[in-house]
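Re: the request from the purification team.
They wanted to know what the chain is likely to look like in 3D before they choose a buffer screen. I agreed to run a prediction and write the result into the notebook, where they can find it.
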Amino acid sequence: MNSFWIILFHTYVNKLKTKSFLITTLLTVMIVLVITNINSIIDLFDKDSGREKVAVIDQSGQLFDPLKQQVKLVNKEIDLIIYEGSEAQAEKLIEKGEIAGVIQLRLNDQKLPEAVFKAMSIADSSLYTDLQTSLQQVKTMLAASQIHLESAQLQKLYEPVSFKKLALEKNAKTEEELNQARGLVYVLLFVIYFAVIMYANMIAMEVATEKSSRVMEILISSVSPIKQMFAKIVGIGLLSLTQLAVFLVVGYQSFTRNMDALKDGFFGVYGFGDIPFATITYAVIFFILGYFLYATLAAFLGSLVSRIEDVQQMITPMTLLVVAGFMIAMFGLGKPDAPFITVTSYIPFFTPMIMFLRVGMLTIPAWEAITGIVILIVTITILAIFGARVYRGGVLMYGKSNSFKDIKKALQLTKNR
């Protein structure tokens, strides 16, 4: 058993010290810090604290004041200023960067407002959308006055309809709980997706690298291939947990410091406070089982190739399985109770993402989640036994890989040993 721990520790420490691991960790930490400090970064680069000045040339002489009032209701960061100069002069101010744009207002033949908006670029859709929305409100009020609608009647006309959503299912999640679950599932799906692709690929590359350097011939004389395979899987698994722990600690610390600034964005819609303990438990379970499922698959696929350049070709089907599961789960975020989602949640290679999606967003019987866990454990066990047999013969195979035909060859070598 000592040889198992030696290989595990060696794999873990060596990968921990590699430049690629350190650079990846550093870059990801920086991305986490940018996301959790995004509002502060935007304020730092935005001039005038993000406020945008828009000049108004009011040819009607009566639209500026009502438009300004509506703009304040839509977006307080837009400053409308009445401009007495010519259109050409306003365009020069835009070119100098003194104002964001100019809007010309006039009344048409029906005495309703029309506008022309000019800016250096119309890529910033939020600015002219807010102006258009505000002007639409002004037009509605003028049209209402023309047909002699009183303000109370107009308010009644636009008053939102009362529409309550009630779930008849016992212990069904509320809308707030669904938003919270959707946010957690969304984050975890990305974590599983990138972790599986990155770390499973790392395992396959590790095995292929040792084979290409002929180190494997020395190792198998003193350590069984099965111990090697599982030592590498566990070693890189610990590496992934180390990296994720760094991301979580940094992200949590930065998030708590910027919670007030982030409450109106993604984290406000998908609040992460008061997450049920059961949901967190399922998240950890499905993440770990998903990792071991794909890591075991990657290890024996990596053992079939002798050259590092053949690794990507060999593990492409595995990568496509992960991508397919991810895409199905993304669809399921909007309709988690669809029969298609229910069926695919029991397919082993999709279970880690899709069963967790259902557990997080629906109130399903405990036996369904447990069934998914059992399916994963059984699949991992079968895959580990079969993978170990392929691995034992695969590490002795050299030469150009012929894709999955080599599995039969590897099994034959295992029988002959």
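For the purification team: DSSP finds 18 helices and four strands in the chain.
Please add any questions underneath this entry.
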